[in-house]
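Changelog-linked ticket: 2-acetamido-2-deoxy-beta-D-glucopyranose example.
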Amino acid sequence: MAFNLWRRLRRFFCTPCGMLNFVYVLATSSVLLLMHLMYINNNLKSLVPIVKTVNTDIKRVLYFQTSNLATKAPTHSINIVKTDWISAQNRTLVSKRPDVCDSCFPHHYTYILDNEEICSVGADKRDVKVIVLISTTHVNTARRKALRETWLTHTRSNTGDVRYAFLLGATSNNADQVALETESATYRDIIQEDFVDSYNNLTLKTMMAFKWASLKCKVAKFFMKTDDDMFVNLNSLKDAVTKYSSVLEKGIGGYCNLSREPIRSKTEKWSVTYEMYPNKLYPPYCSGTGYVTSMDVVEKVYKVSKDVPFIYLEDVYVSLCLNRLGLNATHLPGFHAALQKIGCEYQSKKLVTSHRLTPKMLHEAWNLKNCSKKA
Ligand SMILES: *[C@@H]1O[C@H](CO)[C@@H](O)[C@H](O)[C@H]1NC(C)=O
Ligand SMILES: *[C@@H]1O[C@H](CO)[C@@H](O)[C@H](O)[C@H]1NC(C)=O
Ligand SMILES: *[C@@H]1O[C@H](CO)[C@@H](O)[C@H](O)[C@H]1NC(C)=O
Ligand SMILES: *[C@@H]1O[C@H](CO)[C@@H](O)[C@H](O)[C@H]1NC(C)=O
Ligand SMILES: *[C@@H]1O[C@H](CO)[C@@H](O)[C@H](O)[C@H]1NC(C)=O
């Protein structure tokens, strides 16, 4: 009886192949199924290469290329140490993490410093074309000084057609806070809220920028978010927002990537666990080093952000908001997330942003001599 069933099964599945192949097909399909289940349930990354190997093998068996099995199948090594089991508790987190929520992330912080007049117009002040909001932190005093002495001079101390402000959270260091308040009284270019200023709270800082611009700088036509280690050629920036204004009505522009994968390796910076973000790709996204958009989009992102759950990567967070709104990200020429070689390009229309400049390098780039105007 059992033998009969065995023979029938054999005939049913693969009459022309040998018993060994049949057993192999059966065994590998069970392993494959098991592994797929484990992978789905546990996000066990190391299994992916094995599943791939088995997939290749099983195809070979099915196409009767058994002689190649052992020799040509790609070999993958499995690093058990790096294997990324997610505990039962965390697995619940994975399945519970929603793409959207109902008011789980309201930006309800209070201003400590709010220089409301930054975007005021009239008298000797020009209309505001772009508001540039710069992420910084208390101890980066030298960087803020270098920015004010170089490319921010273009704003004519916040009276020109480009206005700017530095973004900070709260510090428990009293001396730092006193110094910041003195700085704010002198330059009137600081915005500070009462969340703790930390790397993990950069998303709060960025949302502070979107909120502040939406409510206190409505007169601006465009918005830029950037960092305190950036060089921004404001002439190039004004050209870019004019040229790409229609794109910026429907999303953000900058140094963007439409199919970026989350970094899963826990040893790397910007690593993101499956419980923080389970999908294979981020939505279209622009590097937080410098992106631009229209005020319309700024208001929409601010409004939707309360229903978009937190992620600590501030630029990814913005892309999740845009995705929710059905808005897009567009890579624009001249925006760079890496350091560009210091040279005449910095003073030309070819460059909008460059990253990782020290105060010394900022001065060097700003004071370049002998660059032809057309360069
Ligand atoms: C669960 O996730 C948290 C947050 O990512 C992490 O710190 C913790 O180690 C995880 N626990 C286990 C057992 O994997
Ligand atoms: C900000 O970050 C710090 C440390 O990373 C954390 O303790 C704090 O709860 C975070 N949130 C707020 C709203 O300050
Ligand atoms: C986008 O990011 C992925 C990594 O996630 C990378 O492989 C790809 O080259 C990037 N594309 C661009 C245009 O930079
Ligand atoms: C987003 O913009 C890119 C070009 O930057 C384009 O290829 C893509 O089709 C756009 N996607 C949507 C949904 O509009
Ligand atoms: C700029 O050009 C002038 C005259 O050609 C020259 O004397 C000067 O050294 C140059 N400066 C730099 C920084 O190259």
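Closing comment: Example verified and attached. Residues 195-196, 198, 200-201 surround 2-acetamido-2-deoxy-beta-D-glucopyranose (ligand 2) (CB under 6 Å). The chain has two domains: 2-73, 111-366.
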